[in-house]
Amino acid sequence: MSQYGPLDADTDASNFLIYGDADLDSMTDTPLDDDAPEGQRLAGIAHDLAKVGTAQARHALLRPALRAAGFESLCYMRVSRIGDTINRIVYFNAFSPTGWAQRYLRERFHEIDARLAYSCRHEWPMLWDLSSIASHEPPAGTAQSAAGPTSATAARAERFATAARDAGMLSGVSFGLGTPDALDTCVVMFSNSQPSKARLPDMSIGHAYALAVGLHEFLALREPQIHRPAHIDELSGIQRSILELVTLGLNDKDIAERLGTSHHNVDYYLRQLKKLYHATNRVQLAYIAGRVLTQ
What are the HTH luxR-type domain coordinates in residue numbering (predicted)? Predict the structure, then answer.
């Protein structure tokens, strides 16, 4: 596992993680009888992936399936958003072009990638090519967004398009896949070296979707660090109470008085909650609390 963070100091670099084959191979195998709820086995390639135990065997299964669908690589990310701001990405890079995941996170391409913005909001497939994926618009919610595109933003968009071209990612399709976590979406992007998305037949899109769902189910089974639990019923009573009071806009002193505890205890639990939900400040934690308390 490796960590890559954006260049600004407001976001914890540990929120941007890359997982690969070595991380999967270090996981304890899950019995096939337990690979899905109520004794049901995973379907399709998800079940086949769960049966094999090495990176070589996984690639022997998925690489030919990718080629048969008309693609050469795929990128899989679990994305956490607070409003329109992405505050966490866990990137599984085993089937991405070499070095792409590292550059994608290091240069903050996720902030301008139109595929990511679309697929975080919609489960409908997005056909893309280089002319459509790199937006010149600055990240939503920033001071720059009100002023419109800047030369720095345009330069980054051009670097993004150039990097994708160099990696052989000229066109493809992306999908958004739902998760039990109200804050998270999984995005799977398929790529090939064809210059135009118009050449992508419906059958290829269907095959890609089946592969996306299969990999998604497999990773949910095998890699809990990608599919982390963050459900409200896993919190202690005082953690939940503090979350509820944070949504009301109470400060630490008022929360402590409401709960009959000390200011230092409230500060301790707030730091725990920020770490659990990958929030960098109180405003983000209040937004997250509003979402998870309604799950």
Answer: 228-293
Taking phi over 0 as left and psi of -120 to 50 as alpha, with beta for the rest, 16 belongs to beta
What is the distance between the alpha carbons of residues 26 and 3, in angstroms, rounded to a whole number?
A: 18
pTM for this model (two decimals):
0.75
- Structure tokens that stand for 279 in this block: 């929030």
d(CA 20, CA 248): 41
Contact present, 200 and 194 (Cβ < 8 Å): yes
Between CA 27 and CA 226 the distance in angstroms is: 12
Average pLDDT of every residue of the chain: 81
Residue pLDDT, tens place only, 160-170: 999 999 999 99
Closest of 51, 54, 55 to residue 31, by C-alpha: 51
Q: Encode pLDDT of 85-134 as tens digits.
A: 888 899 999 999 999 999 999 999 998 999 999 999 888 999 999 988 87
Q: At what angle do helices 252-259 and 237-247 cross, to 10 degrees?
A: 130
Give the Cα separation of 156 and 93 in Å (integer).
22
Identify the structural domains of the chain with CATH numbers, from first to last. 2-222 (3.30.450.80), 233-292 (1.10.10.10)
